[in-house]
Design brief:
The protein has helices spanning 4-26, 31-42, 67-75, and strands at 51-53, 92-105, 108-119, 124-135, 141-149. By secondary structure, it is α+β, with helices and mostly antiparallel strands. It is globular and about 40 Å long. The termini are far apart.
């Protein structure tokens, strides 16, 4: 059964992994391999189905139902996704969530929150997020739905 503590751990892990991918890249490491590992550990692409709508996608490539598509959004460099610049490569130095709310339902947690990103250049953005976390058969918590959008600006 999913618990409130598990929700907070899953959200914090997601935030920490954003910073970690950018750090690997900034230090000259293999960000693509690291991001692929993050996807395997934190998203259910390898074992099931994931619904992913990244923040800065549009048109025919708005949704990323494959691990390859998600990896391209994270690190770029895939000619099949020419508009991807590698969102996680920016050296985000701090990422945190706020205003979270959730519904617990057995092995699932349905979560909405704001996520704040601080860049090494002191830039600050925040996005609205919806996640569905699933406690998988191996006991790990993975994302099966990740929707992200910029706040509405009237």
């Amino acid at each position: 059964m999913f618990t409130e503590e598990m929700v907070h751990t899953a959200l914090q892990t997601w935030c920490d992994k954003v910073v970690a991918v950018g750090k690997v890249h900034a230090e000259g490491g293999d960000a693509k391999a690291f991001a692929s590992k993050v996807l395997s550990e934190n998203y259910d692409y390898d074992n099931g189905k994931v619904l992913f709508k990244p923040t800065l996608t549009f048109g025919a490539q708005t949704f990323r139902p494959t691990k390859e598509g998600a990896l391209s959004y994270f690190v770029g460099g895939n000619s099949d996704y020419p508009n991807d610049n590698g969102f996680k490569l920016k050296p985000w130095v701090k990422v945190w969530y706020s205003k979270e709310d959730f519904i617990l339902n057995g092995e699932l947690a349905i979560v909405q929150c704001n996520v704040h990103f601080i860049g090494a250049d002191d830039s600050h953005i925040f996005v609205n997020k919806s996640f569905v976390f699933k406690q998988c058969d191996d006991g790990k918590i993975r994302i099966i739905l990740h929707q992200s959008s910029l706040p509405y600006q009237p």
